[in-house]
Amino acid sequence: MEDQIEEMELKPVNVRRTFTLRSNVARQVAVNFMPSRQLPYGTLRLRRTTSENNVLLESSGDETDKQAEIIVREMEQHQRLMEDNPVSEELRREALRDLPQGLTMKRNVRAKLSASVSLRSKHRPINMFKRLKYRISFAWKKARDRISDLIFSIELWYEAIRHVEGHFGSAVGSYFHFLRWLFALDLVLAVLVISFVVVPQALHDQHRNRTGSMGFLDFVSGKGGFEDSLLFYGHYHDGDIVTTGPLTYNMPFAYFFTMLCLYFLFFALLCYRTAYSYRRNFIEIAGGLSNVFASKVFCGWDFGITSQQAAALNASSIYNEFKELLSEQNKNQVTKSFWTKFWQCLVNIVVTAFVLGLIISLEYGLWQLLSSETDLSRWEIYVSSIVTFVLAVCPILFHLIVRLEFYKPRTGFYVTLARTGLLDIGTLTLLLVYWARSGSECWETSMGQEAYRLVILDALLSLFLIPLVEFARSFIFKMNPSDSPPEFNIAYNSLTLIYNQAVLWYGMLFSPLLTVVVTFKFFLLFYVKRECALRACQPARKVWRAAQTQTVLYMLVTLSLFTTLFTIGSLFVRGSSQHCGPFRGYEAVYSVVSEGVLQLARRRTLAQVLAFLTRPGVIAFLLLSLCVAVYYMRAKARAQRSMVGILRRMLVLQSKDKDFLLAAIDKVSNGEWLYSPKPEDQGADSHTWKYLQEVRKPSNAGYHFDPTRLNHSMIERPRSYAKDIRPNSYHMERRKSSEDGETDSSFSWQGSGNCLNKENDAEVGKWL
Amino acid sequence: MGQGKSQFSEEELQDYEDLTYFTKKEVLYAHQKFKALAPEKVGHNKNAKLPMAKILQYPELRVNPFRDRICKVFSSSNDGDCTFEDFLDMMSVFSDTAPKAVKAEHAFRIFDFDGDDMIGVSDLREVINRLCGPEHKLTDSEIQQLVQNVLEEADLDDDGALSFAEFEHIIDKSSDFCHSFRIRL
């Protein structure tokens, strides 16, 4: 049944559409007077009704003034908008702001409105509480305005991104927005880490002398003089830092709580951001009608484009997309045979298994590489270079591999993203596990160094090597234009960003200053990529839909943070090195809370309560209740979904009802009311017919069939319905008569019943 | 922005801030851009009415296939000539902060070439023609097929044209609309 309805929704009556042309304007006017169009605060609809009114009044002289008057009158009818208090003033402001009228008109209306409001107001004294409330809300609004003003004036790279967007469209622009967003995120992170962790430690270090070499290779590897420095975890003090005053600063507390808060704060932030983006780009648009063509037509043009070349490319890409869509539609839908399907599925599975095997073997190789004993000096730099190289090449490899498989382009892209994400996160987790188990004196510092090396080496790669390659490609293209021009690869570049961010999540705890390094790197990367894009790349020839892809990118960043939290939680918080770092005085890291803050050893009751709360039974109970809650939510969501389905069907049927009634009214107003029995063949199962039979019986409605009142166009015809009642003649008649063009009168009482065409009629009848 | 400031009184700016999706700074910035289109004229009279040809020199509008429609829709005199207030209104609707519903309303008017408050077959043909640009031409039957498909998808009440509600429905279901229907100041 559902399918039938669906079909009815998706396949409206082509025949009717092509053959019946109606004067839509008059009908729209009528529709605008319907109660549903007179929503309270329906400010948008307001214009539409008023503009209709205005059409009627248009002949008069001072049009603007008159229109303003009409709008004012409309708005005056809403009591809540017209009160003389700040709330309704705010409502008025918003209503006006959203009104689709010119600004001049809005200002005009506003002046009139405020005059009218002050006329009406009775100046009642308002009580203290309300006044306070208003004052607070006003202050809040002012502050918000000022903040957004400030944000606009300090908005970084505004013109730069706009310039890039103008040349390459909003998809490449969205890469730069993502980069800027990550940069801002890391900047905040860096400032917080520096002020709460690094600066106190630096103050503590004032009187110590540095030792160790600080050459370039030390800089890259993070060893030598860098090892025991502010860069890495091992250096941090494990006790109070004494300042000049009576206050002391407890370094373990500061380190623990700063990191804890930052990780959880940013996790919450990312979750919120991802969920928001997911809701907007996946959930809100889900369901309902498929709108491939309509959204191509209405959302195809990128309004942000400024350059002629990009505009020409955009136009030709839209043209090609239309062509593709049409040819896809015209292609006889060859139903794939079972064996083709089976073959495709098999290929997908085999390739996926191969890729997974590749990832696992890479990880295994990395483990072997790490644990192999060599006498080579600077061995760690080699290992990190290999890791960086592999992680840079693999996305390209995966991109090639996915072409072997049978996915739709977008799914293929997501699959590549997922594989690359898996490789990145897997490698980083492996490194963390390796160092945690390495049994070295201070494995946290080693992990910090590893992350630091990865970031530095990747900087060499993405700031120098890749731009070099891109410039070389564009040079080759200029020499030999027959090749395809290099395009800005949004997917690969976004993956680089995600990788860097993932390294930062993993390394931040072990190397606080890594935040600064990554922030600085993103800062440079912006300029390098901008130059690359503007000088070495051509706008893409395929339209890239940015909105949903961005959600996936956010998801990957969140996922990397989640795995970081998980691994660090299970490895680090349980046991940290006893010889270095701020937590060396504690058995486990979490004893900073249990011993340092809560002092459980002395408070027996609190310890017992906590011990009870962390018992498996309690945790299991919590988990179970969570499961129940999730199940409940899911059931609710499903119920609501089916409700939405029902309502949507009702909407369709109602709009058809409306159509039917309006057509009938049209006829009546034209004096063409006619009531004629249906031909036998289509009567019985049509609901309209039933309605006629049962409710509007000629006897109680006072209607009598009168052939002389038949539509004149029909009477003129030799085979008119009145004379020739035979199966199907009606339909043929309708077609023939409307083929002549806009034959308004050919539309009869019965014709409107016909708005559900024959098959659908039957379906609806069944459904009802 | 120093000179810009002197051209507006505090009340005017407040008014603009209240009635658009911009902050005061952005309003002034927009005025700078407006001024750049015709420095002398606007320097003389801050709310000067610029002819459509001048407005179309704005970079984003210059290459836009619907440029004349955009100007006409936002022009308060309905002939495409825009005052600063019209221009500000245009930028405000195209800005990031404008809600989808407001954008949809204006998009509807831009696409409604014949102004009958419905996007009919002829409007759709015009939109498709303009989208494909002057170099590429779809054949008549292809356009017919496209129009047919669009109507099949979007025309819920089967009257052969898209009313605003139907148009808004489509826009609501498209994640790309807000991304593409946007001009940064």
Using brief descriptors, characterize the structure shown.
heterodimer, A: 768 residues, mainly alpha, 4 domains, two-stranded antiparallel ribbon, 32 helices, 70% helix, 1% strand, globular, B: 185 residues, 0% strand, disordered N terminus, transmembrane helix (chain A), mechanosensitive monoatomic ion channel activity (chain A), membrane (chain A), TMC (chain A)
Give an overview in words:
The complex is a heterodimer of chains A (768) and B (185). Chain A has 768 residues and is an all-alpha fold. In chain A, helix 19 runs parallel beside helix 21 and helix 20 runs antiparallel to helix 21 (514-536). A two-stranded antiparallel sheet of chain A has the order 1-2. Chain A is 70% helix and 1% strand. Chain A has four domains: 1-45 and 615-768, no CATH class; 48-122, no CATH class; 125-154; 158-191 and 227-583, no CATH class. Mean pLDDT of chain A is 75; it is low at 1-25, 38-61, 677-684 and 696-768. Chain B is mainly α and 185 residues long. Chain B has 13 helices and no strands. Chain B has helices spanning 2-7, 10-19, 24-37, 39-44, 52-55, 59-62, 67-74, 84-94, 100-111, 121-132, 140-154, 164-172, 177-180. In chain B, helix 10 (121-132) crosses helix 11 (140-154). The longest helix of chain B is centred in the C-terminal third of the chain and has 15 residues, at 140-154. Classes of the chains: A mainly alpha (768), B mainly alpha (185). The interface between A and B is large, with 92 and 86 residues. Chain A: It is found in: Membrane. Chain A: Residues 725-739, 758-768 have a biased composition (Basic and acidic residues). Chain A: The chain crosses the membrane at residues 178-199, 253-272, 345-367, 379-401, 451-469, 513-530, 551-573, 609-633. Chain A: Belongs to the TMC family. Chain A: GO terms for molecular function: mechanosensitive monoatomic ion channel activity.
